[in-house]
Amino acid sequence: MFPSVKQSKMAATKGFPLILVLSSLIIGLSQGQSTIPVVPGLSYTFYSSSCPGLDFIIRGHLWQIFQSDLTQAAGLLRLHFHDCFVQGCDGSVLLDGSASGPSEKEAPPNLTLRAQAFKIINDLRALVHQQCGRVVSCADITALAARESVFLAGGPFYWVPLGRRDGLNFATLSDTLANLPPPSFNTGQLLDSLANKKLNATDLVALSGGHTIGISHCTSFTDRLYPTQDPTMAQTFANNLKVTCPTATTNATTNLDIRTPNVFDNKYYIDLMNRQGLFTSDQDLYTDSRTKDIVTSFALNQNLFFQKFIDAMVKMGQLNVLTGTQGEIRANCSVRNANSNLHLKSVVEIDQEQQTLSQF
Ligand code: HEM
Ligand SMILES: *[C@@H]1O[C@H](CO)[C@@H](O)[C@H](O)[C@H]1NC(C)=O
Ligand SMILES: *[C@@H]1O[C@H](CO)[C@@H](O)[C@H](O)[C@H]1NC(C)=O
Ligand SMILES: *[C@@H]1O[C@H](CO)[C@@H](O)[C@H](O)[C@H]1NC(C)=O
Ligand SMILES: *[C@@H]1O[C@H](CO)[C@@H](O)[C@H](O)[C@H]1NC(C)=O
């Protein structure tokens, strides 16, 4: 049994101490335990003696933030996805200079990661390090913040394998472009892109369910409106989008899930079945025969979606992680530690990685 939407909504409307009591009760009763193998070096109990209060510190702080602005949950979930897809879940997205991070503006996914999400992660890092010392990585804090975002927005709770270390290198523009699929991708292109990361069709459909919360800028989908309207888009839905985005480059945003924009549920799949998916990458999941039945099964059964989402998040959350003595535990999530220069990868190594990537 997973905590139902009702239970976690209830938790989100009562007083602060109550949520801690309630959440531990709900979590204690629920499973949220994926059977996906844990990679060597990570474990579910990694901080149980070095930082036993970790989950509560993060949940408590995020709960306070979400009280006034639940939309921040989407920003934090997406941040973890970008971290993991580009160069592995190593906190690289958080570094100043990362092409999908806070200070690089040239990459197409530029500026659409919320500035606030980076600040929240650094604030969480300060709280955690204050209580436990510098033992918890920024990459783990990002993974846990994504988990709490899903849970506090009404989604399932799940346990996160921990022990990630923070990388020393920021992600380059070509890393970012090669690894983050654009919203214009069709299902075939998405499946190819995710296969590089050992993620399959079930994972693709489940992870895309992250679009059950959050917003998008017009520029991410107006290619489906202008100059020619995508015939797979429902007419009323398209008309409304044209009001929000009167030109292809209007600087405005719209919700990703038109039914329940701030609740983590399976309504995104109902949207797709009604041709109300915002991106080609969303809507084509219901067109392509390899994913259509998976979409339908999630639309009909929210628990099934939650289970597959948990598995896919645990898989995604372990992509190319650094463990043991690799990398470092950053003292400030935005910058490498001062003494870590010696471990910097050479430019030659980075070039080789990019060549490898571009062969996919
Ligand atoms: C499968 C390929 C994916 C594509 C092509 C894609 C594309 C996008 C795009 C274009 C946006 C809107 C950006 C903007 O214009 O502001 C967006 C937002 C978002 N994405 Fe994805 N995404 C993908 C996968 C994921 C995954 C795996 C997750 C998490 C599990 C995720 C979670 C989100 C969230 C929560 C938002 C809203 C962010 C906010 O409100 O600030 N996406 N995505
Ligand atoms: C984002 O990147 C695109 C090109 O990839 C560029 O045209 C646009 O100006 C950039 N936006 C910002 C706000 O930097
Ligand atoms: C994808 O992989 C999971 C295991 O991680 C498996 O349960 C599922 O059946 C696979 N789906 C497809 C479509 O192969
Ligand atoms: C878009 O609008 C927002 C809020 O109105 C503003 O902060 C931002 O700078 C604008 N972005 C661009 C690229 O004009
Ligand atoms: C972290 O580093 C950034 C970039 O150098 C800096 O602006 C910020 O003040 C630092 N934060 C803390 C808490 O030291």
TrEMBL record:
This is Peroxidase. The active site is at 82 (proton acceptor). Ca(2+) 1 binds at residues 83, 86, 88, 90, 92, 104. It is found in: Secreted. Its cofactor is Ca(2+); heme b. Ca(2+) 2 binds at residues 212, 257, 260, 265. It holds the Pfam family peroxidase. The gene is LOC110785280. Heme b binds at residue 211. It comes from Spinacia oleracea (Spinach).
